[in-house]
Structures are given as C-alpha cells and as structure tokens.
Amino acid sequence: MSISERPLVSVLIPCFNAGRWIGQTIESVVTQTWPNIEIIVVDDGSSDDSVAVVQRFDCRQIKLINQKNAGAATARNRAFKESSGEYIQYLDADDLLSPRKIELQMARLVENPRCVASAEWARFTRDPAEATFLSDETWLDLEPVEWLVRAWRDGGGMLYPALWLVPRQVMLNAGPWLPELSLNDDGELFTRVILASEKVLFCEGSRTYYRSGISGSLSGLKSREGWESQFKVIDLCQGYLLAREDSERTHRVCSMLWQRFALAAYPYCRSLANEALRRARALHSVELVPDGGRLFHVVTLIAGWKVARILQRASGRP
C-alpha cells in the first residue's frame, strides 16, 4: 500500500505556553512510522516562545494556527474543524508518543472503523526513559461499558488524549469538546467517544508518555473553578454511563467516582465534597478506602478521613 493509499491521520495539538515541551512532542509525531500524517497545532494565545518552536520544524505536514486565548477545548475544536484525516489523534503539547504508536493502532482500526484504539501509558517527569509501563484491567479488547466499569472500579481511570486513536465518524458521533469545562474535560470527552464506539481495541506495544510534575499545570490546580469542572464531569459521565446501562455495577463505579472526588476535594471545596458524598451514598453502599500513609490511616481510624485530609493539607501535602 502506497503512502497516498494509507488513511490520513490528523494529530491535533492545542498549545498554550508550552515552549519548553512542544518541540519534543512534535518530534514524537514526525518520527511516527505511519507515513500519512498531518499535524495541526493551535496556539491558544501563548506569551512564550511556543510559536517560534513550532516554526522551527521545516515540515510540510505541520499546520500552525494562531488564536486569541480561548481555552484548550476551543483550540481542540478548532484543530478538528481544520483537519482532514480519516482518523483523529488528540495530543497535549507536553505528552509524547512512541514511534509505532499510530502504526500499531491503525493496523487494527483499518479493519474495525467503528471501534476506537487504546494504548499503553506511563508517567514521566523529565525523561521518558523514566516511564514504567504497568498493565491494568483495561489493557485488552473490551466492550465500551465494560471498559469504563474496569477503568472506574476504584474511582480512578486514565482517559487522557494521547491514549486514543479515533475514526473521524466516531468522533463526529461523540460530539465536540465542551469549552465550559476545564479540569478533566478529556475524561468527559473520551467517555462519550468510548460509548459512541462498538469496541475499545487495546494495541499492545503502542505506547504513550504522560508528563507529570509540571508546576502550575491545569491538572494541578485547586481552584473553585477546577473543582466545579471535575464535579460537572462526573455528573455528565454518570449520566452517559447509566443511560447505556443502569445496573448494580454501573451504580457502584459511579459511587466510587464521587467518593474519589470527595477525598481529593476536601477540604479545598467542602460543599462540593459533601454533595459528592451524598450522591455516592444514593447510588451504592460501597465505601472507598482512602489512600495514604501510616499516619493518615491512624488518624482516619481515630477521627475520620476528613480530619486526616485537613492535617495533610496543613502539612503541605496536596
């Protein structure tokens, strides 16, 4: 099959003040072994050297779009509108793809155009060589509801953009990014994408690298707006899942999502944390065992996890 006969994959990258990382991110895309790729970078009003870094790539497959700051969701929607690919890869400006990531996913999606492809993932801080890939219950082919139930079993789950390769029609069926959301907007979008697909196809060896530990990053913010966004995301995702399957197992995992949120949000945003607990109890009797060290567990046993969280915050722990 010639390059022109292979389906075009659009890699869509929103960028805001990511000059320190976006060069490495783009490099991980231009070195992909899948030969037919377009890269669309939407700079969302950066004030650093992000644009200059992108412009250093003398590559015809890269299209740079500049817009006034409007948020990552708006930038991603703009990139999608400008794209032509039959398959869509969203990628944050600080994350990385392994060289065969897209090739391995396309090998499965070409024969399964109504499915979505997932990948392996691991965290790193400075060097992707630090990343340790640890399999979980979602690292196999799964029906959409089963994938979400497994991912959310303990109230967690990873749905960040780099993981996925999505046929364009599945993305259109799922709908656009929601600009009113900030934190965890990717969790909301890819919940819709998964449920709009026939199946999630896990692609062994297709690897993605999630950059952690960035000071001031959106995922690390503890603002009221951020907590409200996460609360809204869980509310929406619960609605999507229960509309597909209203069962004991789906009630259980939604309860765990609310409890995990409450644990993280307390004492930063007590009213939302308490409302999340109320919703959790209304769904299912399952109880989340809070994470923490030995002292945290001792305080939890004596005075409850809320007191333990207050002491954690006072000691400088997030």
What brief labels describe this structure?
globular, five-stranded mixed sheet, 42% helix, alpha/beta, 12 helices
Can you tell me about this structure?
The chain is α/β, with parallel strands linked by helices and 318 residues long. The protein folds into three domains: 3-218, Alpha-Beta Complex (Spore Coat Polysaccharide Biosynthesis Protein SpsA, Chain A); 222-287, no CATH class; 288-318, no CATH class. The protein has twelve helices and eight strands. It has helices at residues 22-30, 50-55, 72-82, 101-109, 144-151, 168-174, 185-196, 224-244, 248-265, 270-283, 294-303, 305-314; strands spanning 9-15, 37-44, 62-67, 87-90, 96-97, 116-124, 166-167, 200-211. The chain is globular and about 65 Å long. Strands 3-2-1-4-7 form a five-stranded mixed beta sheet, with helices on both faces.
Present the secondary structure layout.
Blueprint lengths: L8 E7 L6 H9 L6 E8 L5 H6 L6 E6 L4 H11 L4 E4 L5 E2 L3 H9 L6 E9 L19 H8 L14 E2 H7 L10 H12 L3 E12 L12 H21 L3 H18 L4 H14 L10 H10 L1 H10 L4
Parallel strand pairs: 1-2, 1-4, 2-3, 6-8
Antiparallel strand pairs: 4-7, 5-8
Helix pairs in contact: 5-7, 6-7, 7-8, 8-9, 9-10, 11-12
